Amino acid sequence: MGARERMIGLYDQAMVTRQSRIYGGSGFFNFGYWGDQPASQREASEALVDRLTARIATPGRRILDVACGTGASTRRLTSRYTPDMITAINISEVQLAEARRQVPGCAFLRMDAARLGFANDTFDAVICVEAAFHFDTREAFLREALRVLKPGGSLAVADMLHRRIAAPLARAFHLPAANYERGLASYRRRLEAVGFEEVEAEDATDVCLRPFLRGLAGWPAAQRAAGHIGLGKAIERSLTHGALALYFAAVFKTYVLASARKPALQ
Q: Comparing 12-21, 92-101, 194-203, 215-224, which segment has the lowest mean pLDDT?
């Protein structure tokens, strides 16, 4: 089994089989946006989707939700779009089956984000929440996003840049070497080189990545203090959550919120 297949299996298990209590049964599995001091991980995850949709310059009629997981981001989009306007894709049929149950009325398709099976100029907006760093490659996805967007259409992405020094760890989690970017300036240039304009990319590490890692590591103790789990389970989960937090901190250096537009027809 290759790194990509292992990665898909890990997400299937975490998002469908176990459905982490951290997310309150919401189906989300992102780090979230904590700048507005949400009361829970679920609220932070919803806020992240809202921050991205706010970056869409002209909402239009059709939006593509790339790497939709079990449909939590798609469900959040229905607060701004009717289901018939929303198409969502993922590479896991296990996750898609759950998404179809959770968000009826939207179109869910199994598809590789780097090889989109849509005609040119199909969508008014493309959104991707914390997945582009997995794609083989991120640049291929950006080129495909540009192609399927209508002229003047918007791209909004929550993404993470990994550390080069952590390459062995990155490979284990299927972060292709070609997706390495030195920093935000390099990330912006990549979007511009592909053909996007009005590119904006902000460092959201302090409001997305770091608060999530603190919450992840501290969650078992908080659950113990609230009386939801016993001491033994708290210790067990503290070890697991602490290891995950250390892994993410070692691999990822910058959390990026980015947006761009496809040039309009002249």
A: 12-21
Instruction: List the CATH number of the domain containing 175.
Output: 3.40.50.150
| Whether the Cβ atoms of residue 216 and residue 245 lie closer than 8 Å to each other | yes
Q: What is the CA radius of gyration of the chain?
A: 18
Residues 6+ positions from 260 with CB-CB distance below 8 Å: 154, 155, 191, 196, 197, 198, 199, 200
Residue 239: how many CA atoms within 13 Å on its side-chain side? 5
Q: What residues contact 34, with CB distance under 8 A and at least 6 apart? A: 44, 47, 207, 208, 211, 212
- What confidence score (pLDDT) does residue 266 get? 61
172 pLDDT more than 70? no
Q: Tens digit of pLDDT for each residue in 27-73?
A: 899 999 999 999 999 999 999 999 999 999 877 789 999 999 999 99
When divided into structural domains, the chain yields a total of: 1
Torsions phi, psi for 34 (to 5 deg): -110, 5
> CA-CA distances (angstroms) from residue 86 to 27, 91, 114, 152?
18, 17, 19, 18
State the residue range of the domain holding 72: 3-19+37-205+254-261
Instruction: Please say whether the dihedral angle defined by the alpha carbons of residues 40, 53, 159 and 141, taken in this order, is positive or negative.
Output: positive
User: Residue-wise over 238-257: b if at least 16 C-beta within 10 A, else e?
Assistant: beebeeebeebeebbbbbbb
Distance CA 139, CA 144 (A): 9
Is residue 121 in some structural domain?
Answer: yes
- CA–centroid distance for 73 within its chain: 9
